[in-house]
Amino acid sequence: MNALNVAEYTHTLGLQAKTASALMAKAPSAIKNKALKALARLLRENVDALQVDNARDLDRARTAGLAEPMVDRLKLSPKVLETCAEGCEQLAAMPEIIGEILGMKQQPSGIRVGQMRVPIGVFGMIYESRPNVTIEAASLSIKSGNACILRGGSEAIDSNKALAKLVQQALAEAGLPQDAVQLVQTTDREAVGQLIAMPQFVDVIIPRGGKGLIERISRDAKVPVIKHLDGNCHTYVDDPCDIAMAVKVADNAKTNKYSPCNASEGLLVARGVAADFLPKIGAVYAAKGVEMRGCPESLAILKKVAGAQLAQATEQDWSEEYLAPIISIKVVAGVDEAIAHINHYSSHHTDAILTTNHVHAQRFLREVDSASVMVNASTRFADGFEYGLGAEIGISTDKFHARGPVGLEGLTSLKYVVLGDGEVRV
User: Fold this and answer.
1) Where are the beta strands (DSSP E) in 169-237?
2) Taking Cα atoms as reference points, which of 150, 154, 144, 44 lies closest to residue 95?
3) Which residues contact 153 (CB under 8 A, 6 or more apart)?
């Protein structure tokens, strides 16, 4: 497909999405839920067929020498597909938020003013690797009454095409426009450039992938972008704290899974508890093969831990998103230094304090400038499903519109509604 054809193709997708969005915005809740339930059923009925398509992507990825963790992200196992189906059913069971009116108040003039929740319209989603994102994005789009244009990675093209076909089948079954969810069928990268530059059709772009992809889209897009660039999350172990609980949580925050953006990459430890806490967490990390890159004070304590993989932390380490069994460790004077360090080096994604001091906890919640701030919990909980949002389309570290896990509400907007009885302004 040449550049001219790609431009014409994406223009057509945009026009079709815009037309479909008007129909989706007024679709009754029961009809949208019918489509979601149909999609869940179709996913379960087509497990074997989907794995045939998925196998082509996996073979191509391995032939291309893609690293095994990346290949693993491509897999559409029966378990992954069942999770997708359950996600559709959970969304169908959630209350309808489109059309709800918030904060209606009577004004001195006699008019009543409130806000109504409405769909954004059309969103474009650009993502890499995981083909299950196709279902997450499509199902959230249907429930929120939007239309969407999905552009998955070239490494998952066969899987994404097969999944998108099922989505359109479910929409048709429910009597909704099939163009409400469209997958970009070409792997030509020019399609991304076109998609992010169509403000006449696309209301917002949501990139989900590596830092390079997100930086490119943020730089070149001519429509608003909901994004996060990094997941440099921190766990701060305060003085005072419950040491046993702190070890358990700091372990989970780092080692539950290394690749997600909500895994802790930095561990800050108050000086008053460092001598007690660090040998305990150090032994846990050593047993799991986690490399510890520490400040001189932390290394002096950790060097006594048998089998510990230690290195001197550099300035770059404090800002690094490792996505690997590596963690930076720094001893700090207390909560003031911890907050200052996090606000300077954090990517403003998710940061946690482990403490038994209520005042310290409240200060941390107020003063740490991140999308999710936690007390006595693992940063791994920063997730739309865990937050009760049903599903998420990504995690935003922006401050406008959506911040943190972006679920149904993040795909809506609020417009003012005014109710009167013949009032005129004087």
Assistant:
1) 181-183, 204-208, 233-237
2) 144
3) 127, 128, 129, 209
Interval 275-294 mean pLDDT:
98
Q: Which two tokens stand for residue 100?
A: 């709800």
Hey, what are 234's tokens? 């921190």
Length, in residues, of the chain: 426
229 has a pLDDT exceeding 80: no
Q: Which residues of 213-245 are buried (b: 16+ CB within 10 A; e: fewer)?
A: bbebbeeebebbbbbbbbbbbbbbbbbebeeee
Given a cut of 70, is residue 1 above it in pLDDT? no
Say which residue the tokens 């014409």 belong to.
8
3-class state of residue 119 by DSSP: strand
Distance CA 182, CA 58 (A): 23
pLDDT at 73: 85
Do the bridges between strand 112-119 and strand 101-106 make them parallel or antiparallel, or are there none, so unpaired? antiparallel
Which residues fall within 8 angstroms of residue 32, CB to CB, at 6 or more apart? Answer: 24, 142, 143, 145, 174, 176
* Residue 131: both structure tokens together: 């083909």
Whether the bond into 240 is cis, omega within 30 of 0 = yes
If DSSP states are collapsed to H, E and C, what string results for 55-114?
A: HHHHHHHHHCCCCHHHHHHHCCCHHHHHHHHHHHHHHHHCCCCCCCEEEEEECCCCCEEE
Task: State how far the Cα of 113 lies from the Cα of 97, in Å rounded to an integer.
Answer: 19
Give the model's pLDDT for residue 212.
Answer: 84
Report the DSSP pairing between strands 395-396 and 350-354.
unpaired
Q: What is the mean pLDDT of the chain?
A: 95
CA distances from 120 to 43, 146, 172, 236 (A): 27, 7, 22, 37
Q: How far apart are CA 168 and CA 161, in angstroms?
A: 11
In the chain, DSSP finds a helix count (H) and a strand count (E) of 14, 16
Q: What sign does the dihedral 50-51-53-54 (CA atoms) show?
A: positive
- Dump pLDDT digits (tens) for 139-155: 999 999 999 999 999 99
Specify the residue for token string 């780092």.
254
The residues that bridge with 373 in the sheet, in sequence order, are 351
SS3 category, 356: coil
User: What CA–CA distance (Å, rounded) separates 317 from 293?
Assistant: 8
Q: pLDDT tens across 183-224, in order?
A: 999 999 999 999 999 999 999 999 988 778 888 999 999 999
CA distance 162 to 354: 45
